[in-house]
């Protein structure tokens, strides 16, 4: 049996590091903690859509590794980005055959950034696939996604931990960040500098919302993995799993979420 409390989970973006969200979900489910509502940005939106569709965490990881999501992207001939996301449409259609939020078994909210109007938009109804593509559309790398005449890019630009949709709806809000940045004093090259700067910016975005969470899970050191480092998928999954088990065992109040109270 599941808890009678409404539990909302918000998943951050972070490229392949988002596979750690699957490890988090596995650990939560093993402890009888199940979300009643899920929100996500970028990788968090991808993981959330698959989970809310009914796939179990390990099954989702196998799909991501087997398909190698990024190989489906092709060069874009335009001034707005280097790659097009159109080629991933077939992939989404295969694993999310019912392209509608209403088909999901668990309610999902997807965050994306309206680039022209400069604001976050939360998608929770209508077509499902395009909002997911928009939420994971890294600006400058991919062409923006058009929805309803407006153009959208990665939700992490403005909100990399979309907890707001759970406020006033859920009894408990769990935030999950997959970009923990270890202390590092030696920047070896410009690539390291850019990566560290981008992650610092993403985390500032996340930490500004941390106080909105009742519980906050952040597997340590994930930022050492590259955004496209699919070869490390199992390590990343395991990091999320082990960190969440430790978090559950060290937080009695959190563990209680999986203990069903019987009404007499």
Provide structural commentary.
The protein has 264 residues and is of the alpha/beta class. It is 33% helix and 16% strand. It has helices at residues 20-30, 43-53, 57-67, 89-95, 129-135, 190-207, 233-250, 252-255, and strands at residues 7-11, 37-41, 74-75, 83-84, 108-114, 119-123, 145-147, 150-154, 172-176, 215-217. The strands form two sheets. Strands 1, 2, 5, 6, 7, 8, 9 and 10 form an eight-stranded mixed sheet that branches. Strand 1 (7-11), helix 1 and strand 2 (37-41) form a beta-alpha-beta unit. Helix 1 (20-30) runs antiparallel to helix 3 (57-67). The longest helix is centred in the last third of the chain and has 18 residues, at 190-207. It is globular and about 55 Å long. The chain starts with 6 loop residues before the first strand and ends in a 9-residue tail after the last helix. 45% of the residues are buried. The mean pLDDT is 89.
Taking the alpha carbons of the first and last residues, their distance comes to 16 Å
| Helix-strand sequence | EHEHHEEHEEHEEEHEHH
DSSP summary, beta strand count: 10
Question: Mean pLDDT score, rounded?
Answer: 89
Count of separate DSSP helical elements: 8
Q: Per the principal axes of the C-alpha atoms, what is the gross shape?
A: globular
Secondary-structure content class: alpha/beta
- Regions with little confidence, pLDDT below 50 for 5+ residues: none
Motif (GXSXG): 40-44
Keywords: Hydrolase, Lipid degradation, Lipid metabolism
Pfam family, one: Patatin
Domain PNPLA: 9-167
